[in-house]
Amino acid sequence: MRRDPEALLAPWRARWALSPDGAAFATPSSVLQPVTLDGRAAFLKLATGAEEAAGGRVLRWWAGRGAAPVLAADGDALVLARATGDRSLSALAASGPDGDDEATRILCRAALRLQRVDDRPRPEGLFDLTRWFAELFEHAAEQPYSHDGMFRRAEEEARALLAAPAGDVVLHGDVHHGNVLDFGTDGWLAIDPKHVHGDPAFDFANILCNPDPEVALAPGRFERTVAVIAEETGVDERRMLRWALAWAGLSAAWSERSGGDAGTTIGVGLRALQALEAPA
């Protein structure tokens, strides 16, 4: 039986002289509580799963350069600066095509800023992208003809891209509108990274599947957003289409294998497949 979140966090609050600023709560991979540290809004976070703990090591490694600053840390526990700004990238994306494009640009710039950090030994426990894509490869073997062969084609593109990366950086791994937040005068900063490294373009593909089905699957949105990503990042549009298909296949495979809803990622994957197969 899982222990009470309050009891799990009490020793850490005492250690760092944190003041509660809300109730403690549990997620599938961590226990959190809004707190203040010397008057600064923060979250106390205790990882309860290996993947979450590895993501915490990445946050510490970035040291506030493009990501939420870690104010204190020990083992699987950390105190993370809390976003207090009132701007939302999801709301901006939902405001119309111009706002959606601006949200895409902000996400691209946030990811690029993180990717530029490489001035010290990398954090322990990073997965390479080949390992990250393992479930797509398994799912494609089991479902080669599902969704007009999307999984099979996603596997083909993923293997080709992984065999010829355009670079190797520490990736965020889950760039989307809910993981880049408004930190007021500190700007837009990332939270909740995964623990993965590889081709920089991987980090931009998830933007195409977010922030929700209404935006992601709106007519013309996929093509427009691919163009914005290419403009902001320098990634060739066709290469971005290939990463979009690979990522959508992986995300849909995760969802289908866990009983989740893969509708949005399948829709994005099929759009990527159609664009790749269109006559030049």
Total number of strands: 11
Overall 3D shape: globular
What percentage of the residues does DSSP assign to strands (E)? 15-25%
N- to C-terminal separation?
58 Å
Estimate the mean pLDDT confidence. Answer: 97
Indicate how many domains the architecture comprises.
Answer: 2
Report the top-level CATH class of the largest domain: Alpha Beta
Low-confidence stretches: none
The CATH superfamily title of the largest domain: Aminoglycoside phosphotransferase (APH), C-terminal lobe
- Tally the helices: what do you get? 12
CATH architecture of the largest domain: Alpha-Beta Complex
Bin the helical content. Answer: 40-55%
Helix-strand pattern, N to C? HEEEEHEEHHEHHHEEEEHHHHH
What radius of gyration results from the CA coordinates?
19 Å
CATH-defined fold name of the largest domain? Aminoglycoside 3'-phosphotransferase, Chain: A, domain 2
Structural class comes to alpha+beta
Largest sheet: 6 strands, antiparallel
Describe the structure.
- With 280 residues, the chain is an alpha+beta fold.
- It folds into two domains: 5-81, Phosphorylase Kinase, domain 1; 89-277, Alpha-Beta Complex (Aminoglycoside 3'-phosphotransferase, Chain: A, domain 2), CATH 3.90.1200.10.
- It has helices spanning 5-15, 50-62, 89-94, 97-115, 129-132, 134-142, 146-163, 202-205, 213-216, 221-233, 237-258, 263-277; strands spanning 19-20, 25-26, 30-37, 40-47, 70-74, 77-81, 127-128, 169-171, 180-182, 188-190, 196-198.
- Strands 1, 2, 3, 4, 5 and 6 form a six-stranded antiparallel β-sheet that branches. A three-stranded mixed β-sheet has the order 7-11-8. A two-stranded antiparallel sheet has the order 9-10.
- It is globular.
- The termini are far apart.
- 45% of the residues are buried.
